[in-house]
Amino acid sequence: MKMMIKFKPAGISASRYTALMGLLFAVSAALNWLESLFSAFLPAGMRIGLSNIAVMLAILCINVPSALLLTVLKACFVLLTRGVTAGVMSLCGSLAAFLVTALLFRRTKASYVLTSVLAALAHSLGQLCAACMLLKTASVFAYLPVLTVSSSAAGVLTGIALKVIFPEMVKTFGSTKQIR
Amino acid sequence: MNINDDRKLIRVRDIVLIAAVLAAAAAVYWVTADFSGKKRYAVISCGGETVAEVSLDRFGDYSFPETGDMVFTVGGNGISVSKSGCPDKICMRTGNISRAGEAIICVPNRTAVTVKNAPGENDIDVVLR
Description:
Shape of chain A: globular
Strand content of chain B: 25-35%
Radius of gyration of chain B: 20 Å
Order of helices and strands of chain A: HHHHHH
Mean pLDDT of chain A: 89
Oligomer: heterodimer
């Protein structure tokens, strides 16, 4: 039997789905670029994780496979614009964040802020593990305490953003019953 | 009903949990950063191989063939990366590190600088590997 992953949920037309995914990917790419502009003003290595909002929205209002597709596409965008190292780091971080978000948003009633804080922490941890493998040294985990503080702050920001944006997404693209 | 229809922004127990995580981070920071040693040295490694060990008393600029165009500067505030050709310059923006346990990471260059306490009375100036 052929294995097929269903990306498009049943309650949404193909054109609407394409538009929604295109929009979310465009937003994540644009936010990724915007973020790299003002992460220059933040201490070393810190990012707000704005582009993760698109993936989290996909988990909330489309489905988990579509969100995974967006995560991989986002890493490809980073690979093309910022090089192999940044691409690998982005993929490891985003995949960890994606797993945490999918689990909490699909299986629990965890709040927006808690989910995005834990996702941001997972993102940092995933990136540190990637750096640890690339550098073959555990010294990278010296960054963990600092990244924990910045991830928590970033997670609170993205959590509030999600709470504001999600109802508007539902208004524009249909109720949560139609597109789950 | 969809699981996302009545999701809360934040709960009190979430604040407690996040505060606990932050407290744990602070604890790890104080435990791992070792203030005790008077003599400290920086281990510069590339791809897991130690390139050099430099005493933090030996002020000056250092560069090594293994780490390409990177320049490491030892000064009164510790050691920093003062020049690097990597794209994001995270290593340079980390600034000075001086306490044992602290590290500067440059992922594109696969390079790490880690500060350690000198063992016993050994006074290392520079050790090249």
